[in-house]
Structures are given as structure tokens and as C-alpha cells.
Amino acid sequence: MPKQLELDIEGMTCTACARRIEKNLNKVDGVSAYVDFASERAHLTVSGETTEADITKVIEDTGYSVGSNRSELDSLRWRVLLGVLISIPVATTSMVHDWMWPMWIYAALVAPVALWVAWPFHHAAFKNLRHRATTMDTLVSLGVLVAFGYSLYQLAIGKHEAYFEVAAVVPTVVLIGRWLEVRTRRSATDSVRALLSAIPETAKVRRNGSQEELATSKVAKGDLVVVAMGERIPVDGIVVEGSGTVDNSLITGESVPESVSAGSTVAAGAMNLSGSIVIETTSVSANSRIARIADLVREATATKTKITSLTDRVSAIFVPTVIAIAILTFAVWFAIGETPEHAVSAAIAVLVIACPCALGIAVPMSLAVATANGAKRGIVIRNPDALSTLNKVDTIVLDKTGTLTTGKLRVLVTTALAGVNVQKAIAAASALERSSNHPIARAIASMDTSLTATDVRDEAGVGVTGMVEGAKFSLGNQSIENYKNSAEVKSALAEVEGLSVAILGHDNTALLVIGLADDVRADAKELVDALKELRIDVTVLSGDVESRVANVASDLGIENFFARVTPEQKLQHLAALNYAGKTTAMVGDGLNDVAALAGASVGIAMGSGTHAAQSAAAITILDDNPRSIAYALKLSRKTWSNIRQNLGWAFGYNIVLIPVAALGLLNPMLAGAAMAFSSVSVVLNSLRLRRQS
Length: 693
Known about the structure:
26 strands, alpha+beta, six-stranded antiparallel β-sheet, 6 domains, 25 helices, seven-stranded mixed β-sheet, Calcium-transporting ATPase, cytoplasmic transduction domain A, Alpha-Beta Plaits
């Protein structure tokens, strides 16, 4: 029987690393492997006698290790910090002759940067060399070592053509981008943890006539689990005793709770708002619906290909070409009788001019300016790679509750029946709901505070009942036929179609019909108009009832909408769009949106939403302003254009000046100046993004 296995892999620096590990794992008998660079995990199907130890050995023989990647992030953080502290003064003083320090000071300061800070590049270059491969790590490592080594040589012979600033700045700048990349790759595991944290760690189980508290993972199918008011449900099951109200927004995303009684199905992670219930377990915690949604998040993340940067794509050709040109330059000059020093100088000029300082900052600099712009507008771009994908989005899928609407219920309509005074009826309804945490109850309770209810209780199929000024009232959503004035009730309900409804009753007579809804966000219409202007298709997916979804879609001018959609169906809808060749963005705020946020090309979470939603998304809108979604899309398009321009500058200098350096017409000092100018050009071009409004 094949078994599934997942392993964290430490030390990957690019997609080429992932492919190399994957290739070696698939050579093992009985192993089918997919290595995902984005989540730094190997997903394996193993059959036969191959053990985890065998697989670990293959990974380690390839040059990587199995285990937590957190230590890698900590290591990168300290390397970046030291690199920045040393590079800034070294680069600044090297620019102006009058500010320059003695060469031995530069040598002492830069040594830890060239050796320790740049060690990840040296290590990766060595691993790639063992497998006869080169990446941009190879060029960074070679450039740093050559610049530092040549500078030490110049210091030793008493000359001053040193490039210590190159050896300090290049690894630091490129490592900053690496650190940001590793940090953002934590989102997949963070979102899964946040999802599963909604399931309680323990459950109260009835067995053999007694009640005991067990770890949720130990609850078996068929066990009776007791859930008190205010507790989360630990397992999927069917209610067999008691009744109450359950907040199922984890699954549906809707703020309107559901009444449950014997025979009702409930899901793990839901909150029991009122009453005590006993449920019969229908699936263990590992197979609960929320756990299956977490699996969907893992699957969506594992199979979603990371956007490969242009620098990675060209490195396989660019790096060996530069090295070959440098070697050829030295050989030719030496062969025609030039001094070894001249030949070395020309070869170093080639390496220095090709050293990827401008190339290394071409993408990170644009992303840094863009993310700063976004932050000023309350847009947190957790994964900068998402900007390049967002630039291509042609279809956007919007959740309704909490995204297009506020998610907070408000009383919109009160209709008095049977000739009662509307204000007195409102006061009685508010009194009944004052002690409840139910979202509908909170909205109704806020209407009036003049009366107090006693003997308040929840009754299955009725709602809440209680005594107000000596009379018994009920408030809920009973069937119309239960009321003596059913015809009058039916007429009143027609006026609140599409709203959440509560009916106040007394002595089998309906006295008040209350219609509630959450408000459409003030700027939602501007968002939809802006998306249409950008020629982006808009769809609404919601777990709410069709009438309410239709009303919101109609108000905003959205033609495509789907109601009563489950989290699994949301992901299926996104998968279908992706399969059809669409580049999708999903906007949501709840746990029920997490799988879809992870499965979309780009996930965008609202700031007031759950931690799990924000972890699964690449972008978070802190202030919940829908207009910020359109701003993010426009920003991504300008950023990607800016990145292409930067790469044009960076490669342009290389293409033009590498031949000049090879011909001996550019000494290393001028090569360093040209490289610095190319970097300045990239920086200035990136800063133009600050004008994005």
C-alpha cells in the first residue's frame, strides 16, 4: 500500500535546487516525488521497502538537509543585518576620494561580509558545481571572491585599484531579496496552522455511562461528545440531544447563526452560542471538514508554481557565458604576450561589470518601492512575487460577507402587526435579545434599552422566549402557519425578502417582523466600476442565501454570482477558471475562503478577516477599503513595467560593456564605476514608482 510523505527541506535557493532534488528522488525505486520550492517541502508517494531514512540520505547526498527551515530564516536575518551595517559606510566612503579610509580598514571590515554574509552563495555555488550546474548564486559567489581577492592582492602590492565595496554591497543586496523571499514562503504553513487551531485540543466524551475529557485526536467515530454553550465543536457529527444556536461562519462565512436540534449536522470548529448539545461523532478530527479544507490549502499551495524571476531564467545561460568570457579574455591577452597583471585585470573587469549588483536589485528595488506605496494605502504585500502575477489578473472572484459588505448585521425594517404599538414591540424584542451573543440578537438588542426580560431561554424550533412586563414573548423564525395572523405575516415578509428575518410573537400572534442585513461597503461600487474599467471579469461567490447575494450583486452591477457556495466549491470554481487559462484573484476574509485564497493565482484578504485568511493570501487590505483592491491591481501593472525597464538597464550595461572589458578597454576601476552607474539608474527608475497614485 503506497504511503504519502511530506518533508521540509532546508537550503534550497532557487527552483533549480528543487528540480535537482526532485530528479534524484524520482530515481529511487518506488518513489514518486514533487518538490515545491515555494513551500520548501517534498511531497512523496512511497511504495516498496524504501524508508524515510533512505529518502533523507538521498536529499542530503544532493547537498540539502531535511528539517525545519526556521533556522535558515534566523541565519539569513543576522547575515543581512551585518551586511547592511558594514556595506553602508564602506560604499559611502568609497564613492568620494576625500572620504576614503586606508585600504587595510576596508579589508578588515569587508572580510566577514565576503566570507560569512556571502556564505549561502558560496555554499550554493559549490553544491551546484558538484552537479555541473551554474545559477546566479555562482556569479554572486565568484564576483564577491574575485573582487575581494583582487582587492587583497592590490593591498599587498601597495596599489589602490581595490573593489572592497563590490564585495560588500553585492552579497548584501542580493541576500536582502533572498531573506524577504524565504520569509514570505512561510504563508502556506501559517494558514494551515490557523485553520486547524479552530478545532479544540480536547473534547468531553461520554463513554460507558461516564464523561471524560480526551484529546480531540483520540475521539472515535460513534463517540458521544458534549458541547456546552460558548465552546467550539471539536468533531463533525449529528446532534442527538439538546438544542441551541451554532455560529457556523467558519464554514459558510455568513454572520447569521443556525438553530440546531436533534438530527442537525454540525461541523468541527463551529461555535455553540446557546444551549448544551450532545453530538454523535461522524468523522474523527483528522477527517473533519475543517481538516479536509486544510488539506485543500496544502494541495493548492503545493501544486501552485512559483513565479520564476527573469534573472533565474537567464542565469543558466548568462552565468557560464560570463565565466567563459572572463577565462577567454585572460587566455587571449596572456597568449598574445601581455603581462599576467594586464590579462588578470581585463578578466576581472569582465567579472566586475557582469557582477549582478544592478541585476540583483532590479527586481527587489521595484518591489520595495511598490510595497512601500501599498503600505501607505493600507495594503500589505506579504509576498512581493504576487505583484508580477497580479499584473496579469483577468478574473477576480469576490466573497460577499465581510468583503463587499461589512459583515455586521443592522436592523433595516420593522413592521408592526396586529395593531400593536411599534415602539413597544421593539422594546420587548430588544429586551429578549439583550443577554445573547447571537449577531442578530446584538443588532436587535441595540434598538431599545427601556425594558428588561426575565426567564429568557432558547427553545428548539421557536427561538428565544422570555417574560417582559408579565407577558410571555417569543422571538425567532417560526413557520408562518404557527401564527393566527399568518396572512398578515406573509404580507409583511414579502416586504423584507432578501433580508434576515426575526418575528416577535405573543399568544400565537405575530406582533413585529424585523428585517436585518449587513450593509454594502461604501466604496464597493467604486471597486466594481474600477475593475470593469481595467477589463477584469467579476464574480461573487457566497455561502449566503440566493436572495441576499442577488440583491448585493444587483446593487453593485455584478452579473455573475453564486449563492450557497461551500469552501470546497469555491476552490473548485477557482480551479475551473485556472484550468480555462484565466489568471485569477480571490478576495475574502473568512476561514471558509482560505482554500480559495490559496488556490487562486493571487489571494487578497480583508484586514478585519481571520488570521488564516491573511496567512493564505499574498496581499492584505488593512483598512477594508474595497477601492484598495483596484489600487493594488494598478500598482502591480506599473510595478511589472518598471521591473522590465530595470532589467533592461541591468542587462544593457552587461551586454554593451562586457565586450569592451574583454578587449582591455575598460580597467576594473572604470568597470566598477559603470556597474555603480547601472545600479544608480535602476534605483532612480524604481523610485519613479513613488508617483503611483
